[in-house]
Amino acid sequence: MRPGLVAIDGTKLNANASRDASRTAEQIAAEILAEVAATDAAEDAEADTAGRHADGDSDGGLRTRSGRCARLRALLDDLEAEAAEKSYEAHLARRAEKEAATGKPIRGRRPTPGSATHKSRRQANLTDPDSRLLKTKDGYVQGYNAQAVATTDQFVLAAEVTNLVMDAPASAPMITAAKRNLKAAGERRRVRRVVADAGYWSVDTVAMKGVTSFIAPGRARQLKKIAETEQARTAILDRVEAGEIDTLEASEQLGVSRARVNQLLRRRRAGDPDPLTTTMIAKLDSPRGRKTYKQRAPSIEPVFAQIKHNRRIRTVSRRGLTAADSEWKLICPTHNLLKVYRLA
Q1: Strand 139-151 versus strand 22-24 pairing type
Q2: Where are the domains of the chain?
Q3: Model confidence over 99-155: pLDDT tens digits?
Q4: DSSP H helices in the chain
Q5: What is the DSSP code string of 242-301?
Q6: pTM for the whole thing?
Q7: Residue 152 carries which DSSP code?
Q8: Mean pLDDT (the chain, rounded)
Q9: CA-to-CA distance for 205 and 218, rounded, in angstroms?
Q10: Residue 313: its pLDDT value, please?
């Protein structure tokens, strides 16, 4: 096992739940009203026939309706809470709180009301509320996002299941888990380099301490365009600093606000390095970067192929995020054991 270079990636696993069991907030509210009405009607019928049908069957039916109604209410509360947490107003409040605590403005673009960041789920699943509707290359599945960190010889060092659509938030916890597992196993060698695809591109991931990251800031066919965009922005800012154009004209050419242009200029004058995308593209375009990034696919993708295709494990049998995570943490070590068996 060679843990110095690791690859991180995720794959979608089907949940033990049907997409047909998903409901929108409006549908859930309507079903709650229907369940309440059905329960009231059943209670009235029971009161009329009290003493004549005391075998408990009606109580069992009512308990089932009550349990379903409670589940519906919990799902509706979950959807509403997520919508409130992801709202534009909540995002602004968190930014203001962070800026007040640090005494510095947050770098980067300010959020806008129509941003995808503020869009919450539109549906929740009755069968497995923790599962999510996730997009794959073959369409949408009701399931989980199974993450894994693997060495170049395809041994899994860390595994975790999330129900997040995005991969990037899982990167830092996964690399931390991989380091912790290596240490617990008595392995002296440490994780030094991390390679990942564009789904893991974020400031936090790239700036992760203790490792050197090789993460594409976009799809391979988009990297050239990204680099050209960064170069064009640099050229426009150079013209502003040379006095050839003002910030208003620069904002029009860049398609951003004047405040954003001024922010970029302040960063340049403060001696900030090149934008992360420019730095990463240059790193990936170097001989070492190209050699390193080429090891991503053969390190991690065969792991998922062996699990999902060869072993035919495409669905988690247990329901709930914690149970699905436990199941994935069992599947991945058995993958390692099978590799050891075959090598032996």
Answers
A1: unpaired
A2: 1-18+127-344, 21-94
A3: 778 777 766 566 676 665 556 567 888 889 899 999 888 889 999 999 999 999 999
A4: 25-48, 57-85, 88-102, 171-184, 203-206, 223-241, 247-254, 258-269, 276-284, 287-293, 296-305, 321-343
A5: TTSS-HHHHHHHHTS-HHHHHHHHHHHHTT--S-HHHHHHHHHTSHHHHHHHTTHHHHHH
A6: 0.70
A7: T
A8: 81
A9: 14
A10: 96
Q: How far is CA 223 from CA 195, 199, 232, 273, 288, in A?
A: 16, 14, 14, 19, 17
Q: Are 12 and 136 in contact (CB under 8 A)?
A: yes
Q: Under DSSP, is residue 86 helix (H, G, I), strand (E, B) or coil?
A: coil
3-state secondary structure of 315: strand
Mean pLDDT of 292-316: 95
Report pLDDT for 314. Answer: 95
- The token duo for 185 is 């196993």
Q: 106 phi and psi, to 5 degrees? A: -75, 130
The DSSP symbol for 170 reads: G
Burial of 114 per CB tally in 10 Å (0-12, 13-18, 19+): exposed
CA gap 230, 35 in Å, rounded: 57
